[in-house]
Amino acid sequence: MLRETISVIRDFRRVRAIARILMHYGWGDIAERLGERSWLRRAGNALNSEASREIMQLPSEVRARLALQELGPTFVKMGQVLATRPDIFPPNWIEELSKLQDQVPPVPFEDMLPGLQEALGKSPFEVFRDFDTEPVAGASIAQVYQAKLQDGTPVILKLRRPGIQANIDADLRLLHNIARWIESEVEGARRFNPIEIVDQFAKSLKRELDLALEGRNTERFTRNFTNDDATSFAKIHWDYTSESVLVMDKIQGIPGNDLQAAREAGMDLPLLAARGADAVMKMVLIDGFFHADPHPGNIFFLPENKIAVIDCGMVGRVSIERRNEIADLLAALVSRDIDTLRDILITWAGNVAVDEDKLGADVDEFISTYDNAPLKHISFGILLNDLTTIMRENHLSVPPDLTMLFKALITLEGLGRQLDPDFQIVSHLTPFVKKIIVDRYMPRTLWRKGARGVSKTIGAITDLPGDVSQVLKEAGRGRLKLNLDLKRLDHFGHQLDHSTNRLTMALITAALIIGSSIVMTVRGGPELFGLPAFGFLGFFLAFIIGIILMISIWRSGKN
């Protein structure tokens, strides 16, 4: 509470503005949590204002969108992030939040000029041969201008808005207050980690503020596509680039949202869709570093049906483990493997309690929905939406890195279908998935995994004496602590029963072998195949029990 109050004091004016907007749209309970009620009264009697009857008649998701739009760029971007979380919100909320637009009126150039001069070290009219003071594009973080270098090279200059850093920092502090309240007061919200969502959003937004980082991202994409002549990225001019200014070559091409111009230029639109899809698949499944916002405004069509990608500030990363999970997910969908699909969803959800029977039944129903449909005819967006709906209904959440990836793939599918009505993203996914699965069992991959495992084992053995010594010291001092997690005690008991049964069977088998060996040395009595009958039967029983034991162990390892 003290931290929240200090935040309110620091951001007094912003709290007043936000509280008024929230109250106006009927979200007074959230407004109260921005600070003590007394503070809000002093901030302009915000709590005494009430939402109009007309506004309160609107659906709650519409009121939320209107409030976020009026609250400004930070909250609009937060809403856009939440629009990628169908595991949290129902479809009507997702559809409404998707309407949020990052559009703000341009800042006059005279207000932008001081920051530009400070970043360049001199007037832009001295640095550039030509400089157009009218912005050609703009969003909440930066505005875009056209210029020419002294050698005549046309460039694009992206300039951060003045004061944007302080405004975003204030909004993020208030968003953290709201997230803490939601996590503590809203039933069931904790499993979706609202504080973690805001933390991830804050990191992403702060990275977008660093325009030099966008330049480095662009150069990394350029390196990754060195051998791909069909995909290109703008050249960055580092002599003029800094955290607040980005200067790059101007892309001379047709904007991706001007399909009529592309048709008139005689471009092969289905080929453009295919090349764009293959580029994104390479980013995601091969490089593990992808453009997180591949909408038409960030793509240009170049001569010879080539594409150029811009605005690389928002990027995502996919670990090798995640890429393998995606490959396994798609393979499970093709083979209708319910168990694998269920296990992947549980892995994505993390360490949470899961009703595996219910989840398995939901996955079975999900797969049966697509049972008779070829995968290439299935909308990837609908498929992902159905998967995340299953996760939401089973109280599971999607990891933040996957929500960004899902959003990028759904955006890509939408663009592809604008270019080609027959576009199927799955047909472009399949070759890359096959490559991942094949590479997984290549000798070099197995050797690398084996070497890594040996290295870890040697490290563990090397550290063992020191670890044991430390444990003994702590025990001698009476400070040894033992933490038990009893969440799955029933599962542990079940496994213990299995282990005990196997041990008993192993002991019986050993006893039969030893006893039969002794009996074999004794002459006399009934015989089978020229051998003492009891010894022969003992060996036979030991053989049968041993086979059963091996099958049990093999099945356990497979599961």
TrEMBL record:
InterPro entries linked to this entry: ABC1_dom (IPR004147), Kinase-like_dom_sf (IPR011009), UbiB_kinase (IPR050154)
Protein name as annotated: 2-octaprenylphenol hydroxylase
Keyword Transmembrane on entry: yes
Residues in coiled coil: none
Transmembrane segments annotated in the record for this chain: 503-522, 534-554
Top-level taxon: Bacteria
Organism expressing this protein natively: Methylobacillus rhizosphaerae
All copies of domain ABC1 atypical kinase-like, residue ranges: 99-342
Keyword presence, Phosphoprotein: no
Pfam families cross-referenced by the UniProt entry: ABC1 (PF03109)
Protein family: Belongs to the protein kinase superfamily. ADCK protein kinase family.
Xref: PANTHER family: CHAPERONE-ACTIVITY OF BC1 COMPLEX CABC1 -RELATED, PROTEIN ACTIVITY OF BC1 COMPLEX KINASE 7, CHLOROPLASTIC
Key words of the record: Membrane, Transmembrane, Transmembrane helix
